[in-house]
Design a protein that fits this description.
Strand content: under 5%
Number of strands: 0
Structural class: mainly alpha
Number of helices: 3
Distance between the termini: 30 Å
Number of domains: 1
Largest sheet: none
Length: about 70
Protein backbone atom coordinates (compact mmCIF):
# COMPACT_ATOMS: atom_id res chain seq x y z
CA UNK A 1 0.00 0.00 0.00
CA UNK A 2 1.26 3.47 -0.87
CA UNK A 3 1.84 6.11 1.71
CA UNK A 4 -0.43 8.98 0.52
CA UNK A 5 0.09 10.87 3.73
CA UNK A 6 0.76 14.64 3.34
CA UNK A 7 1.68 14.64 -0.36
CA UNK A 8 0.13 18.06 -0.76
CA UNK A 9 1.93 19.61 2.19
CA UNK A 10 4.89 20.89 0.19
CA UNK A 11 6.32 24.38 0.47
CA UNK A 12 4.90 25.43 -2.91
CA UNK A 13 1.40 24.27 -1.91
CA UNK A 14 1.61 26.21 1.35
CA UNK A 15 2.71 29.31 -0.55
CA UNK A 16 -0.08 28.90 -3.11
CA UNK A 17 -2.71 28.52 -0.39
CA UNK A 18 -1.93 31.78 1.41
CA UNK A 19 -5.15 33.71 2.12
CA UNK A 20 -3.59 36.99 0.96
CA UNK A 21 -3.37 35.74 -2.61
CA UNK A 22 -7.05 34.85 -2.69
CA UNK A 23 -8.00 38.17 -1.08
CA UNK A 24 -6.07 39.93 -3.85
CA UNK A 25 -7.98 37.97 -6.47
CA UNK A 26 -11.33 38.77 -4.83
CA UNK A 27 -10.49 42.48 -4.76
CA UNK A 28 -9.57 42.30 -8.45
CA UNK A 29 -12.83 40.57 -9.34
CA UNK A 30 -14.84 43.13 -7.36
CA UNK A 31 -13.08 45.97 -9.17
CA UNK A 32 -13.86 44.25 -12.49
CA UNK A 33 -17.51 44.02 -11.50
CA UNK A 34 -17.61 47.75 -10.72
CA UNK A 35 -15.98 48.52 -14.07
CA UNK A 36 -18.41 46.27 -15.93
CA UNK A 37 -21.41 47.83 -14.21
CA UNK A 38 -20.14 51.33 -14.97
CA UNK A 39 -19.71 50.45 -18.65
CA UNK A 40 -23.45 49.85 -19.01
CA UNK A 41 -24.77 52.31 -16.44
CA UNK A 42 -23.55 55.55 -18.00
CA UNK A 43 -23.99 57.10 -21.42
CA UNK A 44 -21.02 59.45 -21.59
CA UNK A 45 -17.90 58.56 -23.54
CA UNK A 46 -15.71 59.91 -20.72
CA UNK A 47 -17.39 57.74 -18.10
CA UNK A 48 -17.27 54.80 -20.49
CA UNK A 49 -13.53 55.29 -20.93
CA UNK A 50 -13.02 55.51 -17.17
CA UNK A 51 -15.05 52.34 -16.66
CA UNK A 52 -12.91 50.48 -19.22
CA UNK A 53 -9.79 51.61 -17.36
CA UNK A 54 -11.26 50.43 -14.04
CA UNK A 55 -12.17 47.11 -15.66
CA UNK A 56 -8.64 46.55 -16.94
CA UNK A 57 -7.09 47.54 -13.61
CA UNK A 58 -9.27 44.93 -11.90
CA UNK A 59 -8.28 42.34 -14.48
CA UNK A 60 -4.59 43.09 -13.97
CA UNK A 61 -4.98 42.74 -10.20
CA UNK A 62 -6.76 39.40 -10.61
CA UNK A 63 -4.15 38.11 -13.05
CA UNK A 64 -1.41 39.17 -10.63
CA UNK A 65 -2.98 36.93 -7.99
CA UNK A 66 -3.16 34.01 -10.43
CA UNK A 67 0.49 34.40 -11.35
CA UNK A 68 1.44 34.46 -7.66
CA UNK A 69 -0.23 31.06 -7.32
CA UNK A 70 1.48 29.74 -10.44
CA UNK A 71 4.84 31.06 -9.27
CA UNK A 72 4.65 29.10 -6.00
Amino acid sequence: MENNELKHNTESMQTANQPGIYKLMIVGVLICMVGTYARFAFDSWVLSLVSWIVLFIGAIISIKGVFKILDA
